[in-house]
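Two folds, back to back.
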Amino acid sequence: MAEWRPDVLGDEFEQLTLELGEDDEGPVSATLVRCLPPEQGWWDQVRGRRRPLEDVDVLYIHGWSDYFFQKRLARFWTTRGARFFALDLRKYGRSLRDGQTPGYIADLATYDEDIGAALAAMGRGADGAASSRRLVLFGHSTGGLVLSLWASRHPATADAVILNSPWLEFQVASVRPLIATVAELQARWAPREVAPQVDLGFYTRAQQEVADPDDPVEVNPLWRPAQSMAIHAGWFHAILTGHAAVAAGLTIDAPVCVLLSSRSARPTRWSDDLTRADSVLVVDDIARAALKLGPSVTVERIEGALHDVFLSRHEAREEAYARLGRWVGGWSSAH
């Protein structure tokens, strides 16, 4: 049986390999990273003080061409008493093996295996329900799409869903149905056909430009390249299928919080404007799509935020954490 071992992030972080069988490229695994809450001081224990999230488990999933590396985001939860877990999906980050196509998947529902294995390792059972602890699902970008679809397919499992700039709609929403038809044909006949690279590396540069010395992050460029990983036809079709499901309406029965930049900027050429906007998604379309996730959705628009709102310049980053704190505080006290 696999055991928890020290993680590349060091400090209080550990990782666990989740074996998931094989596909046409060989053995497949995912990696679960955990950060547990620190012990309370003796005086707080004597006085019987409880942290507000001591009965909460958080499961975080990263975005496309990405992996988990945000220590501060984990500590946001653990300082409030929650157990924090982050999942590097198959063929991403810690889970990428030699000979595998980075990030490739032909059906987003296949990630049910990764999520089920993570929940089981968290002590919740593969469906997430075998625990009295509350479950918060937290996804960024593509991870937000994956978790939204999962939560809709698994009612009465999550107690809250938090999405950081979730990729809920294609960047040109009006032409998605037409593109989806072409993508389906490509996925059927040449699923690993590679699309031209359109990422000029400006999003990575924007993050570097606004890096906060008071909140440093270290990124492995092999796991999170400056230009995004190659896009394959089969994967692209899976994404568009997920977008269509969102457009048709999901049924997430838990309250949802969506954090977004206040505006988008086109990354066709470099400018300082890219350091104050989402250069990946059309945030107005994402905000509209978010209202189709379920009956209880809060959309938080953050001025000056990047695509990953928690990697924005200092002022926007602090505002993102403040908004998250207020929402979580209200949710926790109400549930």
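---
second:
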Amino acid sequence: MTSTMPQADHVLRTDYQRSVAEYWNAEKDPVNIRLGEVDGYYHHHYGLGDYDPSVLEGPEETRDQRIIEELHRLETAQADVLLDHLGNIRPEDRIMDTGSGRGGTSFMAHQRFGCHVDGVSISQQQVDFANGQAEERGVSDKVAFHFRNMLDTGFDTGSLRASWNNESTMYVDLFELFSEHARLLRHGGRYVTITGCYNDVTGGRSKAVSRIDEHYTCNIHPRSAYFRAMAANGLVPINVVDLTDQTIPYWELRAQSSVATGIEDPFLTAYKEGSFHYLLIAADRI
């Protein structure tokens, strides 16, 4: 389905892409590693739903581990919400996780649907880690990760039943991204993204949103840009869900954990002041 492994200079085409790849190749953030160690599903996204307040009670010596496990439950719930919107996926289908990180959502998708899952990332470190996980799980014949650029994956046109980005769209141009997803998806295929986006109504990036950009070396898009870029590429939204209120508890709990990174306050400020939204958009390829 794909050609031979591309050279790095074919995947990383700009200085910005190289800087993003360097960031994720070097990344060993406990907020990703420790949460993944709970059950072996390593995610690179945030969480949804109310947390259990009892994790803040009880013996002090086990308090942080209780918080870690609860944060992981919330981020797993987020991935489940994304997968809920992919539509009717059959075992013979092929789907793609673009910006696949260490593979958590891809493995959850295979477990749920039994289908072929391909993940792409510009971080060779992430790709190697995720393929190692696939080997350990005994699913490397069905789940594979590739050192590829999500804007030019090299996969066959019309080969996918569904594809998604889970908090990775802020690293790329949306028109280029949705052009590639539209190429990959067959007619009627489903695309889903969960993403943070800034609120057009408030008139540009707030100070808090700019701090998030700086922290993650990313470029958060306005809400309107998603719909313009989808419309330009034959992707028609069927569900748009504002998840902002559902993600705030995750950030409030994370701020009280040992894996807090200092970016919690900007997220909470941006969400609560209304300058930042956490959206799920599901769209069909026409």
